[in-house]
């Protein structure tokens, strides 16, 4: 088959789809991926055909907006800059590929609404692909909605009421103008705006969970029943190896604490500075990864700041990972067998943090109190602290056979 993949967003959003594409290539299929131009090099490095969704997608504008990291406003930033501008180009791309006899299968994140429209109006074989459980709405607690964690036992009507409020005051007004523009541009009827994010966006053919069932067990009222492929565990960047500077740093002392507040986070300076103070007081070494990761003390030889590093090579040689709660990042930490401290800011990060904590693999740091962070280090660096749970999870990930599972699931939906 020729299979078209599509997603937009940060490296953490692209990597699961690139890993899926690599698995499908290995199974003998032809694979293309439609995204914004910032991902072209990584997609082509995986030998996947890159197709641009056009110049109207503004990734840089999205990551330059501090509201991207707001628990409520973040979705709006993604919608205005990436998701809404992708709808018409993706629909027209699928239409064009089908006329060429290509795109026998389309696999896209559910928020890529052009793929769902193409399923409805072009009869394309579209599978929704979920990178995290939080993308599937449930009215049954325990669950997380934005930064709220709704505990077990909360009445279903309470959860439903909160979702209704979010739909009414946030999601429906956000989508209304863009969907009206889409209908005019494509000369197509649009679905009821209030249904788009609650139920309509999910494929009517089938879906794929890019995580295992033990991480995100299906709720009885999920709007889709995905087949579980497991974590993609993107490793293609490991071909680069660690930089000589990072290799020398790792060899010069004990395993460091790694701090990474998100691949698209342009506003991590406060976290970097705080972690440097905390680690200095504890006498620990640190590697800081990401934009604006410059050290606050020029003489801090116990710290190293780098723009990027392959996690599959770095984390097995590290002590703890402190991160934002991106699912690809946490899966790499699980496989490396190290504890995680999660500082969620937006999107699915709160739900991911809660799941890591419930699995006994780390903790969520909900405050800026540095004493709390120090206590967490003392707890999780102590001998035998939850090592059985962490080691058991690492073993599951090391046995993870994502490529063959994913290929079999996709092929089961073949025409």
How is this fold's topology laid out?
Elements: E1 2-6, H1 11-26, E2 30-35, H2 40-45, E3 49-52, H3 59-63, H4 74-99, E4 105-108, H5 113-122, E5 126-130, E6 143-145, E7 148-150, H6 156-186, H7 196-200, E8 206-209, E9 227-228, H8 244-251, E10 257-260, H9 269-282, E11 286-289, E12 303-306, H10 311-314, E13 320-323, H11 327-336, E14 339-342, H12 349-358, E15 362-364, H13 370-380, H14 387-398, H15 402-412
Parallel strand pairs: 1-2, 1-4, 2-3, 4-5, 5-8, 8-9, 10-11, 10-13, 11-12, 13-14, 14-15
Antiparallel strand pairs: 6-7
What characteristics describe this protein?
6-stranded parallel beta sheet, globular, Rossmann fold, 415 residues, 7-stranded parallel beta sheet, 15 strands, alpha/beta
Note down, in words, how this protein is organized.
With 415 residues, the protein is an alpha/beta fold. It has helices at residues 11-26, 40-45, 59-63, 74-99, 113-122, 156-186, 196-200, 244-251, 269-282, 311-314, 327-336, 349-358, 370-380, 387-398, 402-412, and strands at 2-6, 30-35, 49-52, 105-108, 126-130, 143-145, 148-150, 206-209, 227-228, 257-260, 286-289, 303-306, 320-323, 339-342, 362-364. The protein has two domains: 2-233 and 401-412, Rossmann fold, CATH 3.40.50; 236-398, Glycogen Phosphorylase B (Rossmann fold, 3-Layer(aba) Sandwich). The strands form three sheets. It has a seven-stranded parallel beta sheet with strand order 3-2-1-4-5-8-9, sandwiched between helices. The protein has a six-stranded parallel beta sheet with strand order 12-11-10-13-14-15, sandwiched between helices. Strands 6-7 form a two-stranded antiparallel ribbon. The N and C termini lie close together (9 Å).
């Amino acid at each position: 088959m020729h299979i078209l993949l599509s997603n937009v967003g940060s490296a953490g959003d692209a990597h699961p789809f690139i890993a899926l594409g690599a698995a499908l290539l290995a199974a003998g299929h032809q694979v293309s991926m439609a995204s914004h131009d910032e991902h072209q090099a990584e997609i082509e490095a995986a030998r996947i055909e890159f197709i641009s969704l056009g110049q109207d997608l503004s990734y840089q504008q999205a990551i330059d907006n501090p509201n991207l990291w707001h628990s409520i406003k973040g979705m709006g930033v993604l919608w205005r800059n990436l998701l809404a501008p992708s709808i018409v180009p993706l629909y027209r791309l699928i239409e064009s590929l089908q006329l060429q006899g290509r795109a026998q299968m389309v696999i896209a994140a559910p928020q890529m609404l052009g793929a769902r429209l193409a399923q409805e109006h072009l009869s394309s074989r579209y599978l929704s692909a979920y990178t995290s459980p939080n993308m599937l709405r449930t009215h049954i607690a325990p669950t997380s909605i934005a930064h709220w964690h709704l505990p077990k036992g909360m009445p279903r009507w309470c959860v439903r009421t909160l979702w209704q409020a979010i739909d009414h005051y946030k999601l429906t007004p956000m989508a209304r103008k863009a969907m009206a523009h889409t209908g005019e541009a494509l000369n197509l009827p649009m679905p009821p705006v209030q249904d788009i994010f609650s139920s309509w966006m999910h494929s009517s053919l089938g879906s794929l969970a890019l995580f295992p069932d033990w991480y995100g067990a299906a709720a009885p009222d999920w709007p889709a029943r995905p087949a579980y492929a497991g974590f993609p565990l993107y490793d293609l960047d490991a071909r680069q190896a660690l930089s000589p500077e990072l290799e020398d740093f790792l060899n010069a002392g004990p395993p460091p604490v790694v701090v990474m507040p998100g691949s698209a986070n342009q506003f991590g300076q406060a976290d970097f500075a705080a972690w440097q103070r905390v680690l200095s007081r504890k006498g620990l070494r640190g590697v800081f990864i990401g934009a604006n990761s410059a050290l606050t003390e020029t003489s801090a030889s116990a710290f190293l700041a780098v723009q990027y590093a392959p996690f599959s090579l770095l984390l097995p040689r590290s002590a703890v990972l402190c991160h934002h709660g991106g699912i690809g990042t946490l899966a790499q930490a699980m496989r490396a067998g190290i504890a995680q401290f999660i500082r969620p800011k937006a999107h699915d990060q709160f739900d991911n943090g809660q799941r890591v904590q419930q699995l006994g693999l780390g903790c969520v740091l909900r405050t800026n109190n540095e004493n709390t962070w120090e206590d967490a280090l003392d707890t999780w660096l102590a001998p035998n602290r939850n090592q059985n749970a962490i080691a058991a999870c690492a073993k599951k990930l090391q046995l993870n056979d994502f490529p063959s599972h994913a290929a079999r699931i996709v092929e089961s939906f073949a025409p």
